[in-house]
Amino acid sequence: MPEAPAQTHAQHAAANAPGPICANWNGDGHGAFFNDADAETVAAFTERLMPGAPGKPGARDAGVLNYIDLALAGAYADLQDFYRRGLKQLDAYCRKTYGQPFVRLAAAQQDEVIGALEEGKAGEFAGPTAQAFFTTMRTHTMEGMFADPIYGGNKDFAGWRLISFPGGQPLFTPEDLESSQAFTREPIVGLQRRA
Fold first, then answer.
1. Closest alpha carbon to 138 in 114, 120, 160
2. Span 20-33, pLDDT tens digits
3. For 18, phi and psi rounded to 5 degrees?
4. N or C, which end of the chain is more exposed by having fewer CB within 10 Å?
């Protein structure tokens, strides 16, 4: 039986390259919980909630998708069905309202969808409700943006740097506590960097 031709490294890399929204998610495009389509939707949704700007990191920069993905595979495993149903209903609402999925909408349309969810005005949501889905996504976005990087988000302390939070410190000196100047010492490097 003849052997199949071997793929070149470039062909393999091109065939297995993740989409632009999920570029920093995981090398092979698959996470701990989300499939590629759901990951793309969550990444787009969280980036609209916490958009980046020149010199200011957003959800994508901070690895919020990775945080939510890991949380749903671990501590938030009880919310897996909530996310599956919520993402399916989000897709149905966007297709009915705009004729395409959330990730294909223009930023202004994505913002309109998010506003409709927040106000409970988005149809197609039966369980979870539109407001519950929005609130959970917003909460998890903020957690992924500002939690300790050991949990998979706040990549390179992006969220902490954004708000000038010094991060965990083993010790604050009396001088630190008495100073009226901004605290500038670097955050303690998370355990994942020491491993």
1. 114
2. 334 344 444 558 99
3. -70, 160
4. N
